[in-house]
Amino acid sequence: MDLLQTKGIEKQFLGVKALKGVDFAVKAGEIHALMGENGAGKSTLIKIITGVYPASAGSVYFNGKECKFRSPLDAEHAGISTVYQEVNLLPDLSVAENICIGREPRTKLGFIDKKERKVQARKALARLDIDINVGENLSSYSIAIQQLVAIARALDVDCKLLILDEPTSSLDENEVKELFKVMKKLREEGMAIIFITHFLDQVYEVSDRITILRDGQLVGSYEAKDLPRIEMVAKMIGKTPDEINQMQAGIVKNTKFGDTVYEAKGIGRVGTISPVDVSIREGEQLGLAGLLGSGRSEIAQIIFGVDPHDSGTMTMCGKSVNFNSPQKAVKAKIALIAEDRKVTGIIPDLTIRENIMLALQASKGIWKTMTLKQQEEMAEKYIKLLRIKTPSGEQLIKHLSGGNQQKVLIARWLATNPKLLILDEPTRGIDVGAKAEIEALTQQLCGEGMAVIFISSELEEVVRDCDRVIVLRDRKKVGEVAGSDISLKNVMKLIAG
Amino acid sequence: MNKSSNKFRHLVWPLVSLALLLLFNAIFTDNFFKIEIKKQDSAQAVQAPSGTVESPQPGTSWITPENYESVNDSVEAAANAATEEAGAAAQTVQDSAGQQAAPGKKDGKGVSIFGYYLYGTPIDILNQGSKVMVLAIGMTLVIATGGIDISVGAVMAIAGAIAALLISMLDAGTCIGAGMGPSVYWIIPVLAALVLTTLAGFWNGMLVAGFGIQPMVATLVLMVAGRGVAQLITDGQIITFDNPGLVFLCNGHALFLPFSVWIVVAMYVIFGLLTRKTAFGLFIESVGNNERASRYAGIEARRIKWLTYVICGFCAGMAGLLAASNIKCADSNNAGLNLELDAILATVIGGTSMAGGRFFLSGSLVGAILIQTLTTTMYMKNVSPAIVAVPKAMVVIIVCLLQSPVFRAKVLSIFASKAAKGGVQ
Ligand SMILES: Nc1ncnc2c1ncn2[C@@H]1O[C@H](COP(=O)(O)OP(=O)(O)O)[C@@H](O)[C@H]1O
Ligand SMILES: [Mg+2]
């Protein structure tokens, strides 16, 4: 019998029908992958199952009974534990407080037992092989650790169904392995797990069955072993396997480089990154490779003036510059699409149009405004160009799915017509289709003479797209490869040291 | 969704509440809506309003701590009396002229440009509410950046103090500019007060945006110290004045309406244009919604925040001038007392979130009118000033709840399920 079943789930948002009658079933003791492009409705389906939103139509059965959870806590009491895509933890509380929130251990007098809480938190983290100080504030840890804490919190709940919505998007390989070990163990114990990810390898590594959504509709449910990878991708994006092969082959590297756009000599910042040289020419795509925390993002932040450098010099188009704030970098026609979309990217309560025009307007200042018509045309243009899935530019950006938010941010910076575009993990947490689009876009921009710095954890992407790769380890530059020397093997060798 | 309905959605509930309140008054308060057109006789028009509390001789006077008590009482009484008197709008100019001794009373001798003006409770509400309406502009912008300014009441006192001090010096001829004559030189204290309070706002902005101190704490400094500064300026005394220009601000009439109403209109037009016809408003909302991302987008977040505090100081200065003009004296202890709360409430009622982000100047304006209508209503119903805060708080809570979509959905679902159950039985 199915542990969880949904029948004809529909969800209508303002202007968008996110789900159009989805039937979905999960058995006890299986790992079930839920797949689909960005905006397919995966997160929405999860949120309806766990009571974040009410469904517009349809019903949810859990354990054979029809359920209408009114809140995630309600679902948790019934035995469904969830890690949502947007990690919803409290950064200013300690790790232990975050893990035990809502079910704190009590002393006999009814006060919170702080010692016991730390013990429980440590135990929960130990399941994932993490050993950190649980008394520290959550915000003092990296996004990866925060995500692991969220997972540990979910695992700590005694539950029959565990739901993980893109839990691995910021984890490194080892952390993912550790997570998979735990997931497999839980499966042995008879727990059902719904798993959403954009990493296709991961799907095949752990899942027993795969359900695919497209545009809010169910495409089908399949045994993982009966569904070849290329066919799964084809079903996700609604194309035939042949068309996909063509898409991937379509990436052509630009080989004509112009003058040096940006050059930095020995830029560094004490405690952040040891001095490095970075230079990039027009039309060139420079990759920064290395493990998480190796100093990739830190270089981007220094170039963009978020964390000003305290050693070295830089020149932009031959002129000596010194960025100590993003404003200056923006004026010098540098753009950064930073790693943490939610914190440093989107302005959630503004519309797509406003989010797109923001950087351009900021570089123009307060007085030089664009008419509403110009703004709308600009939004319209980028919505079409980048295929942003939205009913209109007047939709609030917070209502878009992750990949579409990412596209809006790309639009924001393309609108400023930058000379140097820095992309920090632009493909994290977005689907294959959008990924291919972004890769093709950067190539096209390089062809038009833009310089692009590309940062990604996915080495295949770096190797495939970049003309030169700087490899970092332990906040130091350990090597550089260019042209035909760029291969997965060479880069990996440098990373490993 | 259609755009225009979106644009005005935040106004719906405050306006509904205001309408209900007015309806209540229409039914239970006699002559509430009675508005008369009065003619100002020209002899009085140029003459300064007379009948201020204290001094038999014209000109400013200093009140020493010994006679402070009585003045203070009459000042308080004035605020209440003004609305009560206005409520009984049947009085004519001739009746009321010269009979009332309290300052700030609508004694019908305000200066009017065209000789005609409207007179009645609704008009009086607008006049009395002008201070909070002006304050609410600055407060709305500050709150939209995710901040708050609790010093505006004290800053109002500073504005009144400096204006009164300067006008008294000018009257006495001990200040440069006295040669211009009383009909012109009142502009000096007005400008000085606005400059000084704008600097006060600059100070607040420096603490918040420059040094990164929490807004509540940063503006608490001036909230506490501001009245002390005002006391220093006036040497601990209450300075009264009767300069026609200064008195005109909150007692005069122009184009049928109290002049203060036109000040409010001008301020809203200026700041409405400044925020919506430039990118300033967008940047404020962006910074209030996600400061870090705004910085990454190239917005000078600190400068934007700083600027909102400067504007807030300027608005507080204007409100302080109105308050002083209204009662024709500068009372450092009581001018603008607790008005920061009214300004914050007006902002919140108007649909601007305390968390920052989207802001609505029009909403704040309606909010301020709502609060003043409520206050006036209660005075007219003889609710003691001591307990006025209670019903006020209740109305504020109700409007804020109505503004929340979550709350409305909850209430609706309760009604829906009741109806459904009723249907089954
Ligand atoms: N709260 C919301 N309001 C309006 N639209 C939404 C909201 N949440 C999601 N959507 C829309 O519903 C669709 C599905 O989104 P989502 O479930 O997040 O996709 P996925 O998780 O598969 O990437 C998207 O088009 C998104 O823009
Ligand atoms: Mg999602």
Topology:
The complex is a heterodimer of chains A (497) and B (425).
Chain A: E1 2-13, E2 16-27, E3 31-35, H1 42-49, E4 57-62, E5 65-67, H2 72-78, E6 80-83, H3 95-100, H4 114-126, H5 143-156, E7 161-165, H6 173-188, E8 192-196, H7 200-206, E9 209-214, E10 217-223, H8 229-237, H9 241-249, E11 260-269, E12 273-281, E13 285-289, H10 296-303, E14 311-316, E15 319-321, H11 326-331, E16 334-337, H12 341-344, H13 352-364, H14 372-385, H15 402-414, E17 420-424, H16 432-447, E18 451-455, H17 459-465, E19 468-473, E20 476-482, H18 488-496
Parallel strand pairs in A: 3-8, 3-9, 6-7, 7-8, 13-18, 13-19, 16-17, 17-18
Antiparallel strand pairs in A: 1-2, 1-4, 4-5, 9-10, 11-12, 11-14, 14-15, 19-20
Helix pairs in contact in A: 13-14, 13-15
Chain B: H1 3-7, H2 9-28, E1 36-39, H3 42-46, E2 61-63, H4 65-87, H5 93-96, E3 116-119, H6 121-144, H7 152-172, H8 182-185, H9 187-210, H10 215-234, E4 238-240, H11 244-251, E5 253-254, E6 257-258, H12 259-276, H13 280-289, H14 291-296, H15 301-327, E7 329-330, H16 339-349, H17 361-380, H18 389-403, H19 405-424
Antiparallel strand pairs in B: 1-3, 2-4, 4-7, 5-6
Helix pairs in contact in B: 2-17, 2-18, 4-6, 6-12, 6-15, 6-16, 6-17, 7-9, 7-10, 7-15, 9-10, 9-15, 11-15, 13-15, 16-17
The complex binds adenosine-5'-diphosphate (ADP) and magnesium ion.
